[in-house]
Design goal:
This protein is about 40% helix and about 20% strand. The protein is an alpha+beta fold.
Length: about 475
């Protein structure tokens, strides 16, 4: 039995029938020639050889009676890998558009809570002789930073790599704890946290909140502070359970050239391209707001990668203004760079552990009731959005990698939507490309493929201007 951290548990509490708190990844593989069939059996075998390197994949949650304390993880006594790795119900050749549509369908359904919170669908016959793995994992298991550690356990550096050594100690499943024992344990755990940890966490968090408020006031006086609320836009509104996705990519060397030419960062380029894509999308609908948009940008606050295969969440959040003006894309990139610097200053003042401390002591029943009531009654219509969209930048492998002997040609991550915000843009850099996964609610943002196309065009335009400036 393993205790669940407060921040991990928060992602369970925030889940509603229309807000699915899972992350989705699409891994595109090129099996190569002469290696025989490559499908579910191949992937299942490779995963079975590596399960001991990723312990959370065999754990499920158990909630204490009354849900007054955070759930616990147990080694699932009913774990069966074939329940999680399945063939996709698609007949090849599968076009890229059909793959995107299928990923949207998979993303539209929550994960079952009575078994480990992940599943993988193997899509054979993708155009070009490729295979795609569509993986869905609950955010309670991992954040973007932990996703990199997950990839390290699944991938090899060469196509003919030997399987990893078997575990020193065989895996032993747990016995599902009884309600009485779980209640006693939960009371002890809650009492310990409230008596021993809460006072120090309260003092620590209060200090960081005060420092963040002071930093925000200083940024506001210099006109670089991100607004406390975001404008109402056509990409904001009550969510439904449906999801749609766009999977695209841009040349990573082009992004690096833009960064060098204009003295910014890769993340600035991502944010500026996102702003330009949304500017075009909203302008085409006569719905361009006068104010900058606000993006919620998750920040990995891990000091070092875990060495024991544990995943979990160590994430903070940064609000970044996305200026839609001026018209010149380079000036817009510069404006994004300046507001991002101010946001980083504010996030540093907020502290890496403050969000985890706050979520760790929030009462679970209250959080669940608030999330469901807010979603069911569409209370977001009564106030301006806190943010318009989520933009995540996940570091990926800088070299070519292999999975079950097949070369990895694309990795597309996608994060969840939050109530009131219809778009999540997640990018991942790998050996040669910056892969872009956009998740949307089609009842709020009906043309997610247009956003993907506009992102690519925005990077191409900045690249042309970067070339002209050198």
């Amino acid at each position: 039995m393993h205790p669940m951290a407060g921040q991990d548990a928060t992602f369970l509490y925030l889940e509603t029938p229309t807000t699915h708190m899972h992350v989705v990844g699409v891994l595109v593989l090129e099996p190569g020639d002469g290696k025989g069939p490559f499908g579910v059996a191949t992937i299942t075998k490779a995963l079975d050889e590596r399960l001991h390197l990723i312990p959370p994949l065999r754990r499920r949650i158990v909630t204490p009676p009354g849900a007054f304390e955070h759930p616990v993880w147990i080694e699932d006594p009913d774990f069966d890998l074939t329940d999680h790795v399945r063939p996709a119900p698609l007949t090849g050749p599968v076009t890229w558009s059909e793959l995107e549509q299928y990923v949207g369908e998979v993303s539209s359904h929550p994960l079952r809570r009575d078994r480990p919170l992940w599943e993988m669908w193997v899509v054979e016959g993708v155009e070009g002789g490729r295979v795609a793995l569509v993986t869905k994992l609950h955010h309670a298991m991992m954040d973007g930073g932990a996703g990199g550690d997950l990839m390290a356990s699944l991938f090899d550096l060469e196509p003919d790599a030997a399987p990893p050594p078997p575990p020193d100690v065989p895996w032993v499943p747990d016995t599902v704890p009884g309600a009485a024992g779980l209640a006693v344990r939960s009371v002890g755990s809650l009492s310990n946290r409230l008596v021993r940890e809460a006072p120090g966490a309260l003092i620590h968090s209060t200090g960081h909140l005060a420092g963040a408020a002071k930093t925000w006031a200083a940024n506001r006086s210099s006109s670089t502070a991100t607004r406390i609320t975001a404008p109402r836009t056509a990409v904001n509104g009550p969510l439904t359970a449906r999801r749609s996705v766009s999977l695209t990519a841009v040349d990573l060397d082009h992004v690096r050239q833009i960064r060098r030419a204009f003295g910014t960062t890769i993340n600035d380029v991502v944010l500026a391209a996102t702003a330009t894509a949304l500017r075009g999308y909203l302008a085409a609908r006569g719905a361009l707001p006068d104010e900058p948009l606000v993006a919620a940008a998750p920040v990995n606050v891990r000091l070092e990668a875990p060495t024991d295969g544990e995943l979990g969440n160590r994430v903070s959040n940064m609000m970044v203004g996305l200026p839609l003006q001026p018209d010149d894309p380079v000036e817009r990139l510069t404006a994004v760079h300046e507001t991002a610097l101010a946001s980083k200053e504010l996030q540093a003042a907020f502290g890496p552990d403050t969000l985890q401390e706050i979520t760790g002591f929030a009462p679970p029943p209250v959080m669940m009731a608030m999330a469901r009531t807010y979603s069911r009654l569409h209370l977001g219509r009564l106030h301006r959005p806190v943010f318009n969209l989520i933009v995540s930048n996940v570091p990926g492998p800088p070299i070519d990698l292999y999975c079950a002997g097949a070369r990895v040609t694309g990795i597309f991550p996608m994060g969840p939507l939050m109530e009131g915000s219809g778009v999540n843009v997640t990018v991942l850099s790998e050996a040669h490309h910056l892969n872009v996964g956009i998740m949307a609610c089609p009842d709020v943002v009906p043309d997610v493929d247009e956003l993907g196309g506009r992102f690519v065009e925005a990077v191409a335009e900045l690249h042309r201007l970067a070339q002209a400036s050198e």
